[in-house]
């Protein structure tokens, strides 16, 4: 691959730019949060003996997502976030390889997350709202069909697939226009299923017999699906740079939006299921705060009683002192008058 000729000063300036750490930090920070939430979900479901297919599909999604996050790490080590002129040919090919694998794994994980959300809602409404249940099963079929189609688009973009990143492998690949269309079709389907997965739970919650504040909390959480769709749209806006001449540099921003979309999906799928645990934590915190406030009130009341008691015990002593001072002043005043009279008589 031929590289443009640049002056040493300009090359140093270009190579000093690096935006790889931000996506990588986001990947593993959100991965830790997702793992913690998933662990809490499985704990709650296991203790209540309510593990189901929604939990198993989400667990599969987390495993696939872990491999996807590992490929993002390999992308960063290979050269993601650096300009192409600063990388060797091997680094460029490795970045392309890990990027392709990451996109495929991420798409699979996102599909499992959306299916898990639908299965959870189906279990939550039981045998009520039959029409909603039917719509959810149709949505599951639509999600599976869309993600299978996108998977085939990615896998079959070159035959064999290694021809995407290895120029030494001769293969048959799509043209740039077809690749461009495939990318935007995949992003469009992701955005559509994100929006549907966010709207249906909000409609279902309105008919559930739960408290208003619980409905609001779950509704806001499910509304994160709209944010996930927004991340998908943002990815569509930034993905155009992938078809330019600086792929390793341009891939960092779409990768960040992709990670954010997937991890938001995990949060949407996980938090409603751990609501009982969060409710217990809320009640414990509330009880603890109430106990602390009672202790403070009791302590304040005790101090006030002690202060009043000490004032009452000091009153007799203060009365004696006042009477003593009054007696002294009464006995001294006549003496002063007599002294004044004697002094006056001697002067005349």
How would you summarize this macromolecular structure in one to three sentences?
The protein is mainly alpha-helical and 348 residues long. Helix content is 79%, strand content 1%.
What do these coordinates show?
The protein has about 350 residues and is mostly helical. The protein contains eleven helices and two strands. The protein has a two-stranded antiparallel ribbon with strand order 1-2. The chain is globular, with a radius of gyration of 37 Å.
Which descriptors apply to this entry?
348 residues, disordered C terminus, globular, mainly alpha, two-stranded antiparallel ribbon
Query: Class by helix and strand content?
Result: mainly alpha
> In this structure, how is the largest beta sheet organized?
2 strands, antiparallel
Into which percent range does the helicity of residues fall? over 70%
Please give the alpha-carbon distance between the first and last residues.
133 Å
Number of strands: 2
List the helices and strands and how they pair.
Blueprint: H1 8-15, H2 21-47, H3 53-78, H4 89-125, H5 130-155, E1 158-159, E2 172-173, H6 176-205, H7 212-222, H8 224-238, H9 247-250, H10 252-270, H11 275-347
Helix pairs in contact: 2-3, 2-10, 3-4, 3-10, 4-5, 4-6, 4-10, 5-6, 6-7, 6-8, 8-10
